[in-house]
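Table S7 (text form). Paired inputs.
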Amino acid sequence: MQNEERQADAAVAGPGGDGGPAAVRPRDPGGPEGAGAVRPEEPGTVRPGGRTARVRAAVLEAAGDALAEHGFDGLDLAEIARRAGVGKTTVYRRWSSPTGLIADLLADMAEQSLPRSDTGSLEGDLLANARLVVRTLSDPRQGPLFKAVIAAATCDPRTAEALHHFYATRVAEWAPCVLAARERGEVPAGTDAGEVIRAVSAPLYYRLLTTGDPLDEAAARRAARSVALAARSGLFAPADGGAS
């Protein structure tokens, strides 16, 4: 059995062995917020190189596909191993449970997230943010995947923790565009950068999870413009105008 597992892992690694090029997942904007970091001692959370990295990439790709197709309830580690072309014991040893796999999937998505834009204006930056959210949530694979992860987070604390960290880090990545707007005098002193970024994505996630209204360019522009107007009016700043 162990020999079969090694052969399966080697098939994912390819002929290059540890020195060959690692498999690369498609870059994912992952919404506007956060990285899904998890505790490094948990299974599957170490950032390895070589063959191990290729096995991880194959398993996480398979997990994302399964989540998008069947949701959290359909996530089975044995089926993930089959899809990824690796041995079952490899998957159980490194991730131990579906929630461990989701946590690592969020971490991987955050690692590959696109960096924030710098357009020179607050509304331009917020529009770039909103467009990334729309592109992600309207994607045939990524949209259902996020729905499945969010659903899992409502009933599993470990998944919820990973999801919260994912979005918190993404907010922190985009917050500098609001800080730059403060320096340019576009928004009042003390404007809460995190609240501004969260406000942009909120109506877009609302469309994804509740109304089913289109996630399109018009929705992105409306979200960015309304939040920029609110920020310029001082809605996200303390009443006394104090700096934060």
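Next pair, protein 2 of 2.
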Amino acid sequence: MELRRGRRRARRGTPAANSLLQRARATVRRHAPEDPRDRRRPELTPADEDVLRRYAAESSAADFRALLAEDVRITTPPAPPVVGAEAAAAFLARPYDWRTFPAVANSRPALLRYLREPGASHYEAHVVDVLRIVGGRIAKSNAFVGAHHVEAFGTPRRIVV
């Protein structure tokens, strides 16, 4: 009897999910450019690449602060987001031993970050930060934590020093 009830609930959910998908597709069609070539994300500009290189090399809160938009938002799920330039600069300048490499993720500037634990002889793949740069400043950083995200770029899990 319980199994039948579960199946009935699942069947009731399917039309609702399909309806949501249909509405979502219609919304995307209304807002997306008609020409598929216009749907591509823009390539990185030389200015964006410069911001990315500088961001990868920085370590002090003051240096990070110079690259951040006032309303910058850093997400690192499941932790709550870090919002605002001062808070973000302090967050980014924490005293960790990182090796950071500029990259591109879906035509967006990104950083591949490797972390070395105290006393370790190697760096472990740790996080991919995907950035949004607006007006020469970093407006958003979405962190994808986990070695598998870094390895998806064809990079090693570990860097030995």
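Helices lie at 2-31, 46-57, 61-67, 85-92, 147-151.
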